[in-house]
Amino acid sequence: MTDVLQPFGEGIWLVDGDLLRMFGIPFTTRMTVAKLADGLWLHSPVVASEARVAAIAELGEIAHLVAPGTFHHLYVDPWKTHAAAGAQVWAAPGLPARYPKRDFDAELSDEAPPAWAGEIDQVVFRGSRVMNEVVFFHRRSRTVIFTDIIQNHDPACDGLFWRTIKRWNRILAPDGGVPFDWRLTVRDRDAARRSRDALLKWPFEQVVMTHGVCITENAHTHVERAFAWLDN
Asked: How far is CA 167 from CA 3, 160, 218, in A?
């Protein structure tokens, strides 16, 4: 199953998902898997294909399913049903109220729950009027994990039209960052700066994102640059 699970550091793996379209725009997708003391932690679950379920099963038992942002809860239920009946389902702030019929166990905050405190840190990135996202820091691998608010789309995956759109939206690799359309939704810059400053205190050396090419060199500088617009 090595073609499914891609090691990214000590105790952390990446799983590429299917190509999806949002408002017609093509997005590659990715799930992050971390091995914690009480089991596996799945961030932004992708489609629960037979191969992915089998690969995860080889790592161990799934303890946590994490929906870290507004659009990243869609495949939680299939994983819960087919591969993780005993897992806890964690939601970004606002998701349980927005989707009351979904079976979320708890809403995430700036404080890591006891289940992974000491292994993974987190902060709710606030300031946007339309979307909250929980950003995580996996200590063992020194990896910060973003979902939507930093993207770095691979130019090789798109034709000229979509490369142009993504370049305009500030999300085309190697210079990807915070989407321009998301920036326009940030009405409370003080809250956004506090969130940014909190995550920049983490000693991360790598960046994982759900959409695009991950960063393994000069990661801290890349993130600092991505959020520099908050100071303008």
From this structure: 30, 10, 21
The answer on pLDDT for 56 being more than 80 is: yes
In the CATH hierarchy, which top-level class contains the domain 6-231?
A: alpha beta
Whether residue 193 is predicted with pLDDT greater than 80 in this model: the reply is yes
* Domain ranges within the chain, ordered by starting residue: 6-231
The two beta strands, 88-91 and 62-67, are parallel
pLDDT at 159: 87
Q: Is the pTM of this model over 0.90?
A: yes
Residue among 101, 11, 83, 53 nearest 91 (CA): 101
Kindly report, residue by residue over 93-124, the tens digit of the pLDDT. Answer: 988 888 777 789 999 999 999 999 999 999 99
Residues 48 and 57: beta-carbon distance below 8 Å: no
Considering only 16-20, 81-85, 89-93, which range has the smallest mean pLDDT?
A: 16-20
Neighbours of 187 (CB within 10 A): 11
